[in-house]
Amino acid sequence: MRHLLALSLLLATAAYAEVPKPLTSAEVLALAPVEAWRAVDPDALVLLELESGTVYIELAPDFAPKHAEQLRGLIAQGYFDGLAVLRSQDNYVAQWGDPLADDVAQARPRGEQAERLAAEFDQASDKVGAFTPVPDGDVYAPEAGFIDGFPAGRDPATGRSWMAHCYGALGAGRDNAPDSGSAAQLYVVTGHAPRHLDRNVTLFGRVLEGVEHLSSLPRGSAPLGFYTAEQARPTVRAMRLASAIEPAERPAFEVMRTDSDSFRAFIESRRFRHEPWFAHPAGRIEVCNVAIPTRRSSATD
Amino acid sequence: MRHLLALSLLLATAAYAEVPKPLTSAEVLALAPVEAWRAVDPDALVLLELESGTVYIELAPDFAPKHAEQLRGLIAQGYFDGLAVLRSQDNYVAQWGDPLADDVAQARPRGEQAERLAAEFDQASDKVGAFTPVPDGDVYAPEAGFIDGFPAGRDPATGRSWMAHCYGALGAGRDNAPDSGSAAQLYVVTGHAPRHLDRNVTLFGRVLEGVEHLSSLPRGSAPLGFYTAEQARPTVRAMRLASAIEPAERPAFEVMRTDSDSFRAFIESRRFRHEPWFAHPAGRIEVCNVAIPTRRSSATD
Question: Residue B1's pLDDT band (boundaries 50, 70, 90)?
């Protein structure tokens, strides 16, 4: 109770005071009430199981409903199990799928899933959740901030919103045609945010935990970081949906609500770093530099 | 000759036309004249030799003369040879130095090199080279662009310039006191640019080649990505200065002059991506998303 009172005072101070107060990120996290967190839907929690460990990804069906649905369908039929990481390009992306996808005879069948999906590069702003801006502007988007736990850009002039290519974003690889993606080849951003890809590829999730199992993979030696014939491609053991796992065994995560006062205070704490180490707090922050607070929760929901 | 004429026409068009023309990065590189490149000074080219390969780093003595000089001194006495990578924090930095640095009895002696160096967080703008801005603004600095082949921020109001924490930047680790760094513990940025560190740490170089040998290292499991006692720290076989290597064996690099017309055209080519894949060229670019063209040159200079 004392904590809650302290929280509301601190949050109010941090969010609205003209002179920022020394609230650290650790304090914001310690004081955040239970309502500031939302449980990740087990039907939107994807496990990518590699030899080196498991990558946990939250899907963003509001931004790309067709891609999320198709990925669920592919996962359900075991499409990815035993496939491979095809590409690890330094300071860019790691990408996985079927190494034989272009070979009609040998490509893994996709069952009832479409060969091509219409692009979902952006979405009507009124079809996604509340927008929490970062206050310091953005080089790429008219407005940048957070929607439902995902970094996003927004254009008030067009009424469109889109996920931003921040570190850990999940995208659907495609060829030159905008509708040539199908969620059968996926990538995760593992370098400095390639924001020039925004609105050029369908993004539909972000890594919650374990991104290092992708980002520390050996880089491929061929152009674009593809692995050469001599390099052993890392195996994708399986992709699974958390909702398909027995409740007792099911991993569970909570993400801080990005439209909460706690999250707004968290942004402030990252803009003004008051830890003793900082000689010159920036007083500013870029959307991809806000690591959205994420935590494990109890194994059942 | 035909090439040179084509170049000047294309550069003029790309740099000054209101409607950008479809000049790709590949075309800019193919057409750049020899004067658009500068040889990297062998006295500023550092080799970091790891088990996994060699990282080539160009020092920026204009930004941090004391740190560059001290690093040369440490390298000359073999200070780093046989030391270790101490830390690999995902989406942040890899850091190397003496694991026993804090143990007075066992720390490796630094010879005549200082235990502490005054901070060189920024520099008078008139002591560094010509500034080439990126035209789309910056979240962190009043002005951002390039100086002598290094991404940089600049403040016209104070007359100060500083290197930006882009991917591949080389910094000098320090404790809480601004003068507690000494170039004996070094780090390289291996994740999304942590620009909030700008002007908080002395940056004094950038990786020209081989950054993947740092960025693909296993991540440390302890806080801040430090390796635990159970994890084998990657060995630093040696650090060497190119100028100390026999000319016949010496690696040599060229970097595109960032104050050249070719580089300005290169920036334009990255702002407006005309390759067929792009459905929506951003028309904008952030300083850390411009990968400064760098190439190997003949082995002797």
Answer: very low
Per-residue pLDDT band for B21 (boundaries 50, 70, 90) equals low
pLDDT of B12 strictly over 60: no
Question: CB contact, 8 Å: A196 with chain B?
Answer: yes
Q: Is the per-residue pLDDT at B8 higher than 60?
A: no
* HEC letters along A3-53: HHHHHHHHHHHHHHCCCCCCCCHHHHHHHCCHHHEEECCHHHEEEEEECCE
For chain A positions 49-88, those within 8 Å of chain B (CB to CB) are 88
Integer Cα distance of A228 and A221 in angstroms: 6
Nearest CA to B297 out of B250, B265, B263 is that of B250
What pLDDT is recorded for position A296? 98
* CB-CB under 8 Å, A216 with B218: yes
Q: Residues B69-75: what's their mean pLDDT?
A: 98
Structure confidence by residue, pLDDT tens digits, A101-112: 999 899 999 998
C-alpha closest to that of A164 among A123, A109, A212 = A123
The residue ranges of chain A whose pLDDT is under 70 are 1-22, 299-301
SS3 letters across B58-82? EECCCCCHHHHHHHHHHHHCCCCCC
Please give the full DSSP string across B74-131, using - where no structure is assigned: HHHTTTTTT-EEEEE-TTSEEEEE-TTTT-TTTSPP-TTS-S-----S-EEGGGS--E
Tens digits of residue pLDDT in A128-171: 999 999 999 999 999 999 999 999 999 999 999 999 999 999 99
SS3 B294: strand
Average pLDDT over residues B265-292: 95
**DSSP character for A273?**
-
**Is it the case that residue B7 has pLDDT exceeding 90?**
no
Nearest Cα of chain B lies from the Cα of A76 at a distance, in angstroms, of 31
Fill in the DSSP letter of residue B25: H
- How many residues does the structure list for chain A? 301
Pair of tokens at residue B275: 């390759």
Among candidates B186, B242, B241, B236, which has minimal Cα distance to B51? B236
Cβ–Cβ contact A286 with B under 8 A: yes
pLDDT value at residue B20: 52
How far CA A110 is from CA of A65, A79, A219, B101, in Å, comes to 18, 7, 28, 56
| Cβ-nearest to B140 among A175, A270, A282 | A282
**Residue listed under structure tokens 């190494």:** A99
Distance from CA of B135 to the nearest CA of A (A): 10
Nearest to B196 among A138, A273, A276 (CB): A273
Amino acid code (one letter) for B58: E
Whether A192 sits inside 8 A of B195 (CB atoms) is: no
Tell me which chain A residue has its CA closest to the CA of residue B218. Answer: A216
Burial bucket for residue A103 (CB in 10 Å: 0-12, 13-18, 19+) = exposed
- For B129-142, give the DSSP string: --EEE-TT--SSSS
